[in-house]
Structures are given as structure tokens and as C-alpha cells.
Amino acid sequence: MTMLSKLNGIAARIAIAIVLAVILSVMMTIGLGLAYDNAFESRPGGRHFIFGPGQIGVVKPRQNPGMLAGKIAVIVRALAPSAPAARRGIVATIAEPEMEVVLEAPPLLEAKACLDGHLNLLLQFVRMQLEELSPAILVRACRPPLHGDQPAGVGDAGPWSADEARIEATLPDRERVTFIIPDYPVHAGYGSLLFLFSIFFVAVLVAFWTARRLARPIKEFARGAERLGVDLTAPPLVLRGPQELRTTIAAFNRMQDRLQRFLEDRTQMLAAISHDLRAPLARLRFRAELVTDGEQQRKMFDDLDVMNAMIDSTLAFARDDSRQEPRRLVDLGVLVGDACEDVADAGGKASYLGPRGVDIPCRPTLVRRAVANLIDNAIKYGAVARVKIVREADRVAIVVDDDGPGIPPEEQEKVFAPFYRLDASRDPGKAGVGLGLSVARTIAREHGGDVTLANRDGGGLSARVELPAEKVAEETLNLAAS
């Protein structure tokens, strides 16, 4: 197996889909991170790309509570043991662009109204990193007033601005240091959630796309397998899909080709045998002319006529060119109605009681022959044929009722065998060659349906031809045309 065929396998396609989903997820995360909060684009150090073993992402220090808490804790640790006179120099030396550090600002009064979830998270991080210092350092946090009016008891370290956050730390000598963080978002950053959402969203899209690409040829293969039982002369399936499925489709096409050749050989053999029988039958008829016993001669002629009729029927069935007729959409009500009218014009009692506009894809010549055989049997053995069409969920049924003696239940399957006749129980004078029901069932099964018999409660026989309904049969028709 070549490398290309290995890459075309199902396992390789799934692996490629997973890798593609991860790559697209990372790219989507970076893209959304770049698009998020464009206000930082004009600020130095507003955004940083982080690349490392197993890690990739976009970090905004001013919005990252962990990084801000670490910087605040470092400054507080540096100021706490220093002399008050030296603190301004330390602040000027370690000043950070992400925040402003103010000494001896008016005190902040910590209140729940001044806090939100993101600011409270930053406050907890700062307290956590300073909790081991002794003496303890009091840390407070506050937001700007909601409507421009500063709450009572809240000090001021300068004009408040929108989205500003302030952290106040009281040093051991009671001097206060205030950290002013501009543009600190009210909501916490969603980097991890964004990354997870990106992976989930892209993975779902890639999974659906991959599943559809894998399922499409599998569905076509399933429809082709279903079609094989309906139309053996349909064109072979197209080789497409993963390598494993291509191998299966190729084997399926070879099987279909062998079945076609087997049936063609059997049909040709049957036709040849039937044709070759005509010569000995002709000799027998010639010799029967020499028989002097009139009664025996009549019986011999009758047997020869039956044998010739059987051969004619067999040859007609074996050489039936209508089986090569293409399928097309046909109004079954019109087809059955025309068949009944033809029988009525010939003197038979046949009537159609069903609706028009029942469209099914079929080979109309074959279906008409099957219906005509059943109507002929109904008139021959039951004097009358009443035909109707019944629509069901996934099937269309052609029902032919007669007023004859019916068929015993144990014989209802046997009569479908070629050349099997119930002359004793029905009418010996009207016996055929025994191919009518067999041909009708063969035609129905070639269309994906069947023919069944049942005795009617009020007397007579009901023959039922079932064919696939439009939705089911149309898929086969479309697949055969593709």
C-alpha cells in the first residue's frame, strides 16, 4: 500500500481532522485575542504573545490579575521595610506603565458597592501574596463611583476615570500607598474559556465536516447495495471515499458484474434449450399424424400444444427486451387503468376503482405486464377483475380481486413456481402454462416489491402487488441516473 493510499484511509482522515481542529482552534484563539479590547493596541505593553513548550496565547498584563497582583506585592514588599523618606525614590525607580503608584493619598473605604468580581479577584491575589508579612499589611480595593458621585467615606487620590481600579495598602508605619490601574475591565478575562470554546467550536465544525465527507460515500454505497436487489442492470458504483471504502466498492462492483454475467448466461442457456426443443416436438407432431386411433391422436396433439405453449412462454420470458427499458416516473393509476380498459375492450370484465396521479419510478412495460397477468388470471378463474390502488406509508399496492374459488392457503406460495398449476381445484379447461404468477412476482421483486395472494372473506381471491413508494424508489432512480 502506497503512502498516498494510507493517507486516504479512514484512520488517517480522522487524525488529520483532529490536527486540523487543534490548529484552527489555536489560530481562532489568537485571532479572537487580537480582536478583543482593541483599546490596548495604542498602549505600549498592552498585549504580549506567549509561546512555549505546550503553551501559546495572548496575555494583557493590565487585565491579568495574577501579573498585576505580583507587581503590587513586589512594590509593597520593597516599600514596607524602607524609611519614609526613601519611599518616593523607590516608587520612582520601580514605576510600572500598567499602573500609577501614589503615596499618602486619602484613604479608601472598602465597601461592597465599590467591588466587582474581577477587582475582588485582584484584591484576593494581592492579599494572598502579602499574608506572610509581619506585621500584617491591610489591603483595600475600590472602583470609581457609578454616576460620578463618590460614595461617602471614600477618599480621593486624584480624579476618577472610567474603568479605573484602585488598590490601597497600609504599610506597618500606617503610611498608605495607592495603586491606580487605568482601564481595568469590570469582567474577568476569558482567555481559558475562550480557548476552550474555540477548541470546542472548531472541533465540532471539523467533526461534522469530516463525518459528512465520510458518511456521504457510505450512504451511496448503502443505496447501491439496496439498488442491487431492485435493478441488477444498474451502472456500477463510482469509486470514492476512503481507501477502505474504495476497496469495498470495487469488490461490490465485481460481485454485481459476476451476477449480471451469471444471469445472462442462464437466460441464454434457457433460451437455447427451449429453442432446441422445437425440433423434437415437430418430429413428434409429424409422427402423431400417423396414429390411427383418433382419441389417442387428439390427446397427443393436446400435449404437444401445451408443450409448445410452455416453450413459447419460456422463450418470451428469456428474451424479454423490456427488462432493458430505463426506469422513469409513471402515473401508476393511468397505467393500471389503461390495462383494465384493454381487457374490457377485448370482452373481459375488468374495472379500475383507484385514483389517478400515483407516480412511481418503474419500467412501465414490465409493470403493465405483471398487472395484465393478474387481471388475466382473475378473469380466467374468477370471471371478473376489480382493480384498485392503495397508498401506504412507504409502499403502493395494486390489488386485483376476483369472484373465483380462491386458492387453498397451503398452495398460495406454490403457485408462484414456474409451470405449477392448480388445474384440479380451478378450471382445467382454462389452464395456462403456469408462468403468469411467476412472471408477475419476478417483475415486482425486480422493482423492490412483491406479489402475495390471499382468499377474500366473501369468496374469491385477492392478488396484491406491492411496489416501493415514490420517496424510496426515487432515490434508486436518482442513483441509477447519476
Could you explain how this protein is built, in words?
The chain is α+β, with helices and mostly antiparallel strands and 482 residues long. It has three domains: 3-58 and 190-210, no CATH class; 63-181, Beta-Lactamase; 326-481, 2-Layer Sandwich (Heat Shock Protein 90), CATH 3.30.565. The chain is built from 13 helices and 13 strands. Helix 6 packs parallel to helix 7, helix 7 (243-276) runs antiparallel to helix 9 and helix 8 runs antiparallel to helix 9 (294-318).
Offer a quick outline of the entry.
The chain has 482 residues and is α+β, with helices and mostly antiparallel strands. The chain has helices at residues 3-7, 10-35, 65-79, 84-93, 117-130, 191-228, 243-276, 278-288, 294-318, 332-345, 364-382, 436-446, 470-481, and strands at 48-52, 55-59, 100-103, 138-142, 165-170, 176-181, 328-331, 350-352, 359-362, 385-391, 395-401, 450-455, 461-468. Helices cover 49% and strands 15% of the residues.
